[in-house]
């Protein structure tokens, strides 16, 4: 069993069966426009990097998919299939109190990532899944290890933009809950990152006007 469920610029996602388990296979595709040796090295490095970041996040207490196998020679990661609902698709089904509780937790775990040096790189409601009691962060393909305030601000602004564009009806309460959770885990470091988020947001608006 191998079913393609998503095609991306860098990788394709398949649902597969792995040792009797339903699993997700992420395959980084060769790029014909790159020199073959460079392409091989890039896919190998990025595959290792993503697997390492997922492990690092888990070690710091953020729920991420279990990794079953890494085949860096072929740019493949086989990982746990998360059976749940993306937060993007769940928000409208929740009461206001449930929304607040969920986004405070999401903010808290986003702060845990940043405090441990992990920049997610695509921190949106499409890349967080609610599965039972778990809040699972997925898709670390653009992630990096970095403690810079600028990187944190850009990461936070991805969530800010998602709430503005996709969940605008609830943006105020969701962002407020998110920031409260972020402050809880980040402590004194939170304000610099949140201030930078606002600055990055303004930069984006100025660029769009130009």
Overall description:
It is a single chain. By secondary structure, this protein is of the alpha+beta class. It has two domains: 2-80, Phosphorylase Kinase, domain 1 (2-Layer Sandwich); 85-209, Transferase(Phosphotransferase) domain 1 (Transferase(Phosphotransferase), domain 1, Orthogonal Bundle), CATH 1.10.510. 48% of the residues lie in helices and 22% in strands. It is built from six helices and ten strands. The chain has helices spanning 36-59, 87-90, 96-115, 149-165, 171-186, 190-209; strands spanning 2-7, 11-18, 21-28, 67-71, 76-80, 85-86, 118-119, 128-131, 134-137, 144-145. The strands form three sheets. Strands 1-2-3-5-4 form a five-stranded antiparallel beta sheet, covered by helices on one side. A hairpin with a 2-residue loop joins strand 2 and strand 3. The longest helix has 24 residues, at 36-59. It is globular and about 45 Å long. The N and C termini lie far apart (50 Å). Mean pLDDT is 94; it is low at 206-210.
């Amino acid at each position: 069993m191998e079913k393609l469920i998503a095609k991306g610029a860098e990788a394709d996602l398949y649902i597969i069966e792995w040792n009797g388990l339903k699993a997700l296979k992420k395959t980084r595709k060769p790029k014909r426009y790159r020199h073959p040796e460079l392409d091989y090295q890039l896919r190998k490095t990025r595959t290792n990097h993503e697997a390492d970041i997922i492990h690092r996040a888990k070690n710091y207490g953020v729920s991420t998919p279990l990794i079953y196998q890494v085949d860096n020679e072929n740019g493949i990661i086989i990982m746990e299939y998360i059976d749940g609902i993306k937060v993007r698709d769940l928000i409208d089904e929740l009461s206001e109190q449930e929304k607040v509780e969920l986004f405070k937790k999401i903010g808290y775990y986003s702060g845990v990532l940043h405090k441990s040096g992990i920049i997610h790189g695509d921190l949106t409601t499409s890349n967080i899944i609610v599965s039972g009691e778990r809040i699972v962060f997925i898709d670390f393909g653009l992630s990096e290890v970095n403690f810079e305030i600028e990187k944190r601000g850009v990461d936070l602004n991805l969530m800010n933009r998602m709430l503005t564009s996709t969940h605008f009806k609830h943006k105020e309460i969701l962002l407020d809950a998110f920031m409260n959770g972020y402050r809880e885990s980040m402590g004194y470091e939170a304000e610099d990152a949140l201030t930078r988020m606002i600055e990055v947001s303004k930069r984006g608006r100025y660029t769009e006007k130009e």
